[in-house]
Model the fold of this input.
Amino acid sequence: MSSYTVRSSVPGAPSSRRLEFPPRRTSVQSMARDDSDDENMLGPPKLSNFGSALLSDKENVEPYPYSLSHGGAGAKRYSQQSRAAARQEVLGAAREFSSSNTNNSVGGPYSTFHSEDHSDSTMFATSKHNQQSMTTFNPETPSEQSKFEGMNMEKSRSRVKSMQQTLKDELSLRSSKRRNRRFVSSRFNLLGPAKRASSNTGTPNHSELADESNVSQQEANFSHSSSAGATAHQNEYNVFYEPQNSSSPQKDSAAPTDHTSINYDNIEFGDLNPYQYLKKHNIPTTELPNISRLYFERQKGENRKTALRKNIAAKDAIQTRLTSASLSNSPLLTQVDLIKREQSIPKRQPRRKISDHAANNDSKAWSSPVSGSNGLKTASSRNETSPRASEMYENLERPERDTFGSIRRREALSNININRNYHQLQNKRTKYSTENLEEARGIHRPRFEHPVQEERFGNYDFKHRSPPAVPERKHVEIVEPLKTTESIPLKPPATSGDNYNRKKPTIYVNGTEYEKLELLGRGGSSKVYKVKNVANNKVYALKRVSFDEFDDSSIEGFKGEIELLKKLETKPRVVKLIDHEMDHGVLYEVMECGDHDLSHTLALRSGIGLDVEFVRYHSQEMLKCVKVVHDSGIVHSDLKPANFVFVKGILKIIDFGIANAVPEHTVNIYRETQIGTPNYMAPEALVAMNYTQGQPAEQNRWKVGKPSDIWSCGCIIYQMIYGRPPYGGFQGQNRLLAIMNPEVKIVYPEKTSNGDVVPKTAIDTMKACLERNPDKRWSVDEVLNGPFVKPVAVTHFFIRDLIKNSVKYGANQREISNEKIEELAEDVWHRLADFRL
Ligand SMILES: Nc1ncnc2c1ncn2[C@@H]1O[C@H](COP(=O)(O)OP(=O)(O)OP(=O)(O)O)[C@@H](O)[C@H]1O
Done:
């Protein structure tokens, strides 16, 4: 490799550079590598680049990457001019060298070079016959050294500077071309895939490369054919746009077939993009930037026109609605007019994107048979409406194709919705204002409660559906059952010997049938039932006593009761025995039936307080019964409240089971058994007394007489006043002991537990009845005639007469003895007895 050092005069450039001559075959590669670096290309040219550029410029065999295919027209011209000038300068310098070296033979220092490289470059091969290449210069040759020294060095330096400047401009121009190419590439991407033109079968890239190859070839031909730079500058434009194939079959009449004078105003792209347009009309790709710019400007204008046209259509549609709404207020409008106006206005569309479901529903509503029969437009017929409406439909239903922009489209939709609501309101007003007219015309319109229904079917005349069929009422006959004269037996008929047909069991007493009604009470040895005589339907008490549990003495005692009852059957204060029968150890007594006994009455008044009159009345009633018994020579021996019953309001005595007839002129009887109720038994009836005369000592007897009955009556009165018997506070055996113990005194409080004052006469009566000594007890008559049972009442006249008589008696008798006073008191007392009310 040969090297040569030159001093550069370019400002900023290194003072000296070592000029190297790279191998010729790598010049193109070096250019390609430098071409990738824009910054290096913008800087001052290097001598190495200069040499490479010369070589590459001559070697047009390979595609020249920096063709003028993508440069602008002005840049292209400048590039071509500058390149032509540079070439002229280079050729001039070479001629100078060659002229100074005309005698240089083939066998000289160039012989080797030419023999190696003559077939590689056409340009170099052309010039090698006329000039000496710099690369073939060998300064070491003595003959050439002398020639070189003889040259004008100043002239050479100026030429080198000129060449450097030219190369600098060339590089700047190439950088500009590169930028333009990038811009065009980005625009191509926006245009989408290029369509295949009729005259262009290759892909755009391939076509572009082929075209670039042609351009490079044309440029090489130009460089080869032209000899003068100025002339080349003048003819460059015309020759350059000469079409390769002038007989192109497809040429647009409006297309600039004569490319020497392109009229951009006459260009019509149609459906072609700029690149397709170039290919179709065989226009060099260098015109692509200009044509692309023209294409985009026209597109922008078309878009503006389309937007303006759609805006006008939307406004016209709105104005049509408003006019229709104002006209619909007129009461003279008929229903047919309203329908026509409604048909001329498209239905409202949703603001947002229409979903498939909503669209389907909407289409169903429109395509309903009812609407079709009434002249409503279906979805397919909407396009048959006015052009303005159709255009607005296009605008509303396909917002993605709208070119207004989102804001403008939203405003348009909002306006339409607002006016739609106003239109609906006007329709409603019209509907209400025309209701009377419609009714007068006999037009029946359905009433919709739902606004959607009203919106869809609001102003249209519909035919009523046939009313639903009234369900048939089933006729049900109420058939009353036949009435028969024969009564339905509630129970099976009675048979002989069967008592099933009887309501309740019956008891026969001496042949008389008694029907058992209810149980009245139960005693120690018997049960008492309420029965009804079946023959006369009278009610009785039936006492049934079984002798199985009793010994013979007890059986004799029940038999004595019957005798006593028979004896007393005429007494009104003794329950009346109706009938009795002894059968198989069972005693039946049919008696007069009482309502309830005295124990039941006392229980009802428990806790109510003292009622002296109640006690006096019931005491008197009780004593009257006892008087009857005592007067009959009978000692009852078992007097208690349960043995007094009220029969029709009259208290009567019952239960003479242990009663004994008292022989006349005797007061007491003696029993060998202790029978009775402890609470009411007199002390003498409880204390066994040894029967001494003629009887075994171990045998005890109890003395029972009429005073025992008075004791019992005293206990009943005591219970009626204080609520319990005298020894009621004792329980069990202690009660008997207390009764028998004379030390246990009976207390008579002046007040009851409720605080009621107990009359003194009542207390005195109780004390007289409950005298331990039976001989000192009052008799029944005394009690009955006692101040409590039978109180004395005096009148005002009685007291006045008493005082008057006493004064007279004292005036006549100065001294009155005590005996005389007692006699007088007894007399008054008897008079009071006669004076009782
Ligand atoms: N004629 C009647 N009317 C209404 N009720 C009666 C009649 N006879 C008895 N009673 C009721 O039957 C109950 C028992 O009767 P009664 O006292 O005669 O039987 P008892 O076996 O003698 O009893 P006890 O021997 O224990 O005194 C009475 O307390 C009374 O309530």
Observations:
- The chain has 29 helices and 16 strands.
- Residues 265 and 749 are 149 Å apart (CA to CA).
- The two ends are 185 Å apart (CA to CA).
- Residues 520-521, 523-526, 528, 541, 543, 575, 591-594, 597, 638, 642-643, 645, 654-655, 657 surround adenosine-5'-triphosphate (CB under 6 Å).
